[in-house]
Structure formats: C-alpha cells, structure tokens
Input
Amino acid sequence: MRLMLTVILLALLSTACGGELPVREPPSEEPPPLTYLSLGDSLAVGVGASDPDELGYTPLYRDRLAEATGREVELVNLGVSGETSSSMIGESGDSQLDQAVRVLRESPEAVVTLSIGGNDLLRVRNAPDAARREALDRFGWNLNYILRTLRRASESPPEIVVLTLYNPAPGTITDPWTGRMNETIRAVAGRHGASVARADRAFEGRERQYTHFGERPDIHPTDAGYRALADELLKSTDVEQYSGL
Output
C-alpha cells in the first residue's frame, strides 16, 4: 500500500512539473579585456596629431579594435619618440623591448603594433651609401631580434602587426632607401609570422595631406595621416580570432 502511494505521488509530481526537470542556463560570461600593446617610435606616441592621446594611430586603432571585436581593449603604449631599433633593444634591462616582454608575460593573448625604422634611416640621411647599407643591415638584424623576442615572450605568441615606412618626400634620394627598408620589414616580418600594414601604400600620392612636410620640415603625420595608419593596421589584423560576439 505504501509503495503504491509513493508511485502515485511521484506521478502527480511529474505531471505538475511538465514531466521534465527544469534546466538551468549557464551564466553568460563577458570575454576578458583584450590587451593592445603599442610599440615603437614617435608614430606610436602620436607626434604630429592635434591631440596625440586621442587622435594618434594608437588610440584610434584601440577604438577600431574594440568595435571590430566587441571586446573591451586595454591599451599599453610603450612608444618612445626618437627610438631606433638599436635603442629599443637597449642594454639596460629596462629598454622598451624589456618592458614589452614583461607586459606580454602577463597578457599572453595580446595584439602588438610596431612602428620602427624611421629614425634608423634618418640618422644616416646625409651619410654616404656605405653607411646607409650598414644601417640597413643593422636594422634587419635588430628587427629580427625584436620580433623573435616578442614571439617568445609568452606561451601563446601575440599577434604582431608591423608598419612599413612612408616616404614624406617622394621623388628624392630617400625613395630607394625607404623602399629597401620596407623590403627588409616585409621579409623579416614574414619570417616571424607577423603581419605588415602598408603605410607606404596608404600615403602614396597623399603625402601633403597625410604629413606636415608640405607646410614645414616635419615628417610626422597629420590627423588624417594617423587615421589612415589606424585603418591600415586594422586591415592587417585578424580580428575574428579575438571576437567576443
């Protein structure tokens, strides 16, 4: 009798619950913030922009990256005006590259942009060809070391996007040397699986609009130039792998 009552009660309970136990939906989790590490020279700093903190390519790219991925993006900008590939490596233990390695160890899933090489070329702009060739060789070695170090900084290698150099004064002696520098950038970046953002193509034919060089001897980008650089960087970034949607 007792057994029969138990069976009847269970049957009634099952009917009242619709025959199925309620299923709990797992709580939705927001993806963690994405770290964006900006490295390099005065272009990473935003020199030439009317408001470097908002209108340089670094903050503009951060905002574009956040919109494209649907994630919060935390910016770490280690750029230094006047930085060369040699000074970026440094020997003090606290160089820009040393600091970058520490950031990447804490943020293995990161996006890195790199603007370097312009000051290497400027240092030898009035030097004989032999000195320029030596500077180009040294830059290639340094860039190889920088990219290798960044890739090995964390267990999961970061995505790295390297900017090529634009030429603010086309039709001058700077043409062939800027071209050779960009060939080196593309070759070394490809060796390390880094993407290349073609600043040279973006600025071609728009040098007076995209730089201050037409109005004064200043090779840095205008606000329009920085917008173009941010666009090129985003086009060269695999945003799908970071999407939080």
